[in-house]
Amino acid sequence: MGWVAPGWVAPGWVAPGWVAPGWRAYGGAGKRIMATRSSPAKGRKDSVMHSAALRRLGWCLLLTAVLATAACTSAPAQAQHPASARASGVPQVPGCSTQVTAGPALAASRPAQVSVPGDPTGVAASPDGRWAVAALSQGPDGGDPRIAVLSVSKTNGRLTLVRLVTLPGSLTGAWGMTVGPDGRLLLVAGGSGAAVLSLPKLESGDAHPVLGVLAAKGAGAFEAAVSADDHYAFVTAEETGDLYVFNLALALQHGFGAAGVAVGAVPLATGAVGIAISPDGTLIYVTTYGQAGPYGRLWVIDASRAERAAGARSIVASTAAGCQPVRVVLSDDGQYAWVSAIQSNAVLAFNTVALRQHPSAALRAVVRVGSEPVGLAVVNGGRTVLVTDSDRGLVAPSSGQTGVSVISTAAALAGRPALAGLLPAGQFPRELSYDAADGSVLMSDFASARVQMFGVPAAAEP
Q1: Mind listing the pLDDT tens digit for each residue in 177-208?
Q2: CA-CA distances (angstroms) from residue 331 to 181, 301, 435?
Q3: CATH number of the domain to which 333 belongs
Q4: How far is residue 215's CA from residue 223's CA, in Å, rounded to a whole number?
Q5: 438-to-129, 157, 256, 423, 453 alpha-carbon distances in Å
Q6: Rounded to whole angstroms, how far apart are CA atoms 45 and 22?
Q7: Rounded Cα gap, residues 134 and 150, in angstroms
Q8: CA–CA distance, 371 with 450 (Å, rounded to integer)
Q9: 172 located within any domain
Q10: Fewer CB atoms inside 10 A, N or C side of the chain?
Q11: Cβ 403 vs Cβ 370: under 8 Å
C-alpha cells in the first residue's frame, strides 16, 4: 500500500491487537457472535463502530490527497478484478480488506433443511449417506455441547433430527468434526480436547456412543483429522497455536488415559484452526490466523515426524496466507491447497509441491469472494470450490449478504475471473461437508440454528 502514517489504519485493515467492539479477533469459540450484533446494546456498539470507521475514512481521504501511494479498500466491489491480486501476472498475497465480490445468484433447487437446538458448527455425513451429524456448541439455554444425529432421506430430500447426544462435560465446546477413513469413528474437537465416538452407535441409538476423549494440554481445540491408517489423530488448538498429536489406536485399545496416547505437540502460531491431510497421508496442512491483521500462515507438517513426537522438527515449510486464514482443503489429487482468508474476503490456492520447495512462490490464485469466507469444500471432481460467505461481522461494515460462493478452479488457476455464482444461505453459514457418493453438500447455518443439504451446482465458469 505504500507509506502509512504512524498510528493510522486504512479502512478494511485491522491494526495488530484491534478488534471491532463486541467481537473477538477470530471468535472460533465465540458461540453467540451473531447474537451480539442484535443485542439490546446494538445501537451503542454500532455507533462506536461507525464513528471509528468515519475517523479512519477521514484519514484515508486526507492521505490519499497528499500521497499517491495511499488507498482505501472499504468500498464494495461491483465486479471481480482478478488482476487486483496480481502483479505482472504473479498472484500476490492479499492483505486485510472489507472489499466484497458477489457472484451472480445461481438457480438452486430447494435445499433440505432442519432446525437444531443449538449453534451448529461442524457437519459430516456417514459413508453410506443415510445419516448426518452436526456439532452443537451450546443450546439456547446453555448446557454441555451435543451432537445432533440426523437421518437423510434421499428419496424425498429430507433431513430429520432423530436424537441428541450429550458430549462429556470435560469438553467446553463442539466445533470441527471429521469421520475417520474407515467410516466408523467420529472425532469432535471442542476446547479442551476431542471426543471420539462410534458412528455406528450414533446411528443405532446406542446409549454409550462416546468412546473417550483425547485431552489436549492447552485450550481452544478446534478441528481434528485422522491419519490414513486410522492410527493417529491430529487436533488444532486455536488459543495455544499448537497441533496436538494422539495415538488413537493405543487409546482405543488400552484406554484414553494410557501412557503414550498423548504423543506431543507441534508448535505453530496463535489461531491454529484449519487442518487437512494429503491424500497419501504423508503431509498435514494447518492454517494459523495469528494476531489481528495480515499475519496468517499456511503450514506444511511431516506426518510421520509428528507421529514420532518430533515437535517443531516436523515442520516442513510455512508461507503467508492472507489476513486471518481459517480453513484449508486439498484438491482430490493433493496438488493444490485452497485456503479461506476471512479478513481478506478471499480464497487462495497454493501449489503443494512449491509449498515444500519454494513456499514464498507457491501461491497460484487469489479469488475475491463475499464477506468473511469460512467453510470450504472441493466438489465436482476438483473442478469447483465452494466457500461460505459468513458475513459474521468481525470487521465493520458488514455486507448484509451471506451465501455460498461457487469458484471455478480452472479459471482461478488460469488467472481468469473465477467466481461463477452465489448460492443462498442462512445467517452465518459456517462449515461445509461434501458427500461424494451422491454429490450433496451439508452446511451449518450457525446463527440460524439450522443444517442444510443441497445438490452441488454443475461445474461452470463465469
Answers
A1: 999 999 999 999 998 999 999 999 999 999 99
A2: 17, 17, 15
A3: 2.130.10.10
A4: 13
A5: 8, 12, 35, 19, 12
A6: 7
A7: 8
A8: 20
A9: yes
A10: N
A11: yes
**CA–CA gap between residue 248 and residue 306 (Å, rounded):** 14
In this structure, are residues 238 and 220 in contact, taking their beta carbons and an 8 Å threshold? yes
Residue 318 lies in a domain: yes
User: pLDDT tens digits for 289-316?
Assistant: 998 778 899 999 999 999 999 999 999 9
Q: What is the pTM of this model?
A: 0.83
Nine-digit cell string for 252: 482405543
* Contact status, residue 121 vs residue 446, Cβ threshold 8 Å: yes
Residue 323 in any domain: the answer is yes
21 near 48, Cβ under 8 Å? yes
Under DSSP, is residue 46 helix (H, G, I), strand (E, B) or coil? helix
Helix (H) or strand (E) holding 51: helix 42-66
* Residue 108 contacts residue 419 (beta carbons within 8 Å): no
45 in helix, strand or coil?
helix
Structural domain harbouring 245: 112-455
- C-alpha cell, 372: 468473511
The answer as to whether 288 is a domain residue is yes
Instruction: Specify the range with the lowest mean pLDDT, choosing from 53-62, 152-161, 251-260, 425-434.
Output: 53-62
Cell of 309: 513426537
